[in-house]
Amino acid sequence: MVRHTDGPEWIQLNYQTHILPHIDWLKIKPPDPNASAPDGTTLRTATVNVGDAPPVFHEDQKPHVEKNISMSEFALCLSDIVPNPWQAARIAEKLIENLKTSGQTDEKIYDRRSYLIPTLQEHVAKEVEDQAEQIFRKKLDSGEIQFDLDVGEPNYKLRQSYKIEVHANQNPLTKYGKPVQLSLFEPMYAYPSDNELEKNFAHFLDGEKALQWWHRVVARQQDEYYVQGWSKQRIYPDFVAMAKEVEGMTRVLIFETKGQHLEGNRDTMYKQRVLKTLEEAFNVTKDTKMRETPTRTGIFRLIFNAQEFPEISAQLNEGSYSTES
User: Fold this and answer.
1) Domain residue spans in the chain?
2) What is the distance between the alpha carbons of residues 76 and 128, in angstroms, rounded to a whole number?
3) Which residues contact 285 (CB under 8 A, 6 or more apart)?
4) Coil, strand, or helix at residue 2?
5) Exposed, middle or buried by CB within 10 Å (0-12, 13-18, 19+), for 303?
6) Whole-prediction pTM value?
7) Residue 189, Cβ neighbours under 10 Å: how many?
8) What would the pLDDT profile of 128-153 be if each residue is shown by its tens digit?
């Protein structure tokens, strides 16, 4: 778990409590009003005859609208990003002021709302995320945040059963016609939402002799496993797994599968950075109070295609793992 200090205790990291209060809102400015943007659109219709005559275009007559700029409309769009309404209003007001200073009229600003509002949201969201990442990393370096196994005094009861929703068209996940063998919970069902990469990766994990077990995480399942980074959105990895103990060492694995077409988008890049950061933190933790024997290291990564499976297998079986059967 990703944990944060709470006096002498450790509690689960909470974005609202441990990250958000440290954001310096006064550092967040509106986007550049002179950045490339559409000037507006002109609606046109065309009458096309069925012959060879060219179409005749007509400019649409727009109904009269009072084009008054509402600062509250711009501020309201930030309500999910900036919890302080006064700071949201400050940013929105400054954007409108900058637009007018650059020569934009009320009418032109009004016409460009459909562009300006999402641009403002994206800009402020990135500013908040950049600061949040710096806060997270600083706390990680100082030891206020740790990512490790929760192995202190037992504060939970082991589940006697694991309830999942199973629909009529769901069947147990099989490999070569037989149920998968290493799934932590039996039987393991193939979910309708699973894509081929997820199914192939489950089959790959099930064939790895170095593993004790693997588990397919269902994000919609109550109390399902997740990882918390520097964004309020939780990361529900697709798979978690545990390697066998070899010579006093084992490995914890967290995998998120992403189609090749999603590589490089904002959400994917965020998850990549979080998993890489947590892997580094997990593998250098020296606090034995949060560890138990055997020594555990971690492999946490995003998977984009089946060509990466051999590399993962080699990493999992490197060293003494190569002789384990």
Assistant:
1) 2-38+65-142, 164-323
2) 17
3) 146, 147, 148, 291
4) strand
5) buried
6) 0.78
7) 18
8) 999 999 999 999 999 999 988 765 55
